[in-house]
Specification:
This protein is mostly helical and 338 residues long. It has 13 helices and two strands, in the order αααααααααββαααα. The protein has a two-stranded antiparallel ribbon. α2 crosses α5 and α10 (204-217) packs across α11 (230-237). InterPro entries: Probable_transposase_24.
Length: 338
């Protein structure tokens, strides 16, 4: 295992360079994609534990870091690059799912319960991890989930015919055909080629989908409007499909993870708090203004009351003086009479 890659590396006197375009999960060059998948499978079988759920790999970051390190050392690529980490994570995710399926098919399905292994069949997996897998496969919930998944797979209308190549590499090969050297392919051409079998040709659902796409492109348009492109036609016929993203004709949408949802909710709450804070600030400013106005009126009223009090006191003083003067005058008059 891995001897072919070693011979190729010795032949070019250097490690094979692996180029992963941002947004892609695999290299576009078929040879690079094949060797990356091969080495990833070797590392997975020999060194990686097989957990029942992908969630456990996400929680234990050391497993993914170890996988990326062991795979990247075989190639000329940067293990710290984000595109490389995303591709290796997807490779590990798909590989461990396939490993669980193969282990279940070999050591659990059609095997009597009394004869199911109690020890791990892989050296990279402990006995406790194997027991967890057996418990998961034995649970009624998992069996029901498998039946639902099987029913969903049977309802797939457009199964791709890429053979042993990954979808991205096969799409790259299709684009390099001689018929597309002078005229670039439209989005309908790769869809037709990727779902066409060399033995059976196109299935009836695929033929119907291609006819619908071509009909949308050939639809007459009103004056001043541009005709619909092949990409728009594919998106209209396959609204929920990731076909355009897989062949690189549409940018991948951001994933809606729990972290993103929490971050979005935090931003909403922060915006609400900021709005309430601004409203509270405006309310406090209004209250402060009214308070200042009230204080001004109160001080003015108090000043007026003080002035009135002063005037009242002066009036009382004048009354007293007038009474004293009247008293003196009465005395003088009485003296004059005498």
């Amino acid at each position: 295992m891995g001897k072919g890659l070693e011979r190729m590396s010795r032949g070019i006197n250097n490690k094979i360079s692996v180029v992963i375009v941002e947004g892609m999960r695999r290299p576009e060059a078929p040879m690079q994609a094949a060797k990356l998948a091969s080495e990833g499978g070797i590392v997975l079988r020999q060194h990686m534990p097989i957990h029942p759920r992908w969630k456990e790999y996400k929680e234990d970051k050391s497993i993914l870091n170890d996988f990326v390190g062991k795979v990247s050392v075989k190639f000329s690529m940067d293990p710290n690059e984000k595109a490389v980490q995303i591709a290796c994570a997807d490779l590990l995710k798909g590989g461990q799912r396939q490993m669980r399926h193969r282990l279940k098919k070999t050591y659990f399905d059609d095997v009597p319960a009394s004869q199911v292994r109690t020890t791990s069949p892989l050296k990279g997996m402990t006995d406790d991890q194997w027991k967890l897998l057996v418990e998961m496969w034995s649970s009624p919930k998992h069996k029901e989930k498998c039946l639902k998944a099987k029913a969903c797979r049977e309802q797939v209308k457009y199964p791709h015919k890429t053979g042993s190549r990954c979808y991205i590499a096969q799409a790259y090969v299709v684009k390099q055909k001689d018929q597309y050297k002078h005229v670039p392919p439209t989005a309908i051409d790769p869809f037709n080629d990727l779902h066409c079998s060399s033995k059976t040709g196109l299935s009836d659902p695929v033929k119907e989908a291609v006819e619908q796409m071509k009909a949308i492109v050939d639809e007459p348009t009103a004056e001043g409007q541009d005709p619909k492109s092949a990409t728009e036609a594919v998106a209209a016929v396959l609204p929920k499909s990731k076909f355009l993203k897989n062949i690189g004709l549409q940018a991948p949408a951001p994933k809606k993870s729990a972290t993103n949802a929490v971050h979005a909710r935090v931003q909403e709450l922060e915006a609400e708090v900021e709005t309430e804070r601004q409203g509270s600030a405006a309310l406090r400013s209004q209250i402060e203004y009214q308070k200042n106005q009230l204080e001004a009126l109160t001080s003015k009223f108090e000043g007026t009351e003080a002035t009135n009090q002063k005037h009242q006191e002066e009036l009382e003083t004048l009354k007293k003086q007038a009474e004293e003067i009247n008293s003196i005058l009465r005395r003088l008059l009485s003296l004059n009479k005498d």
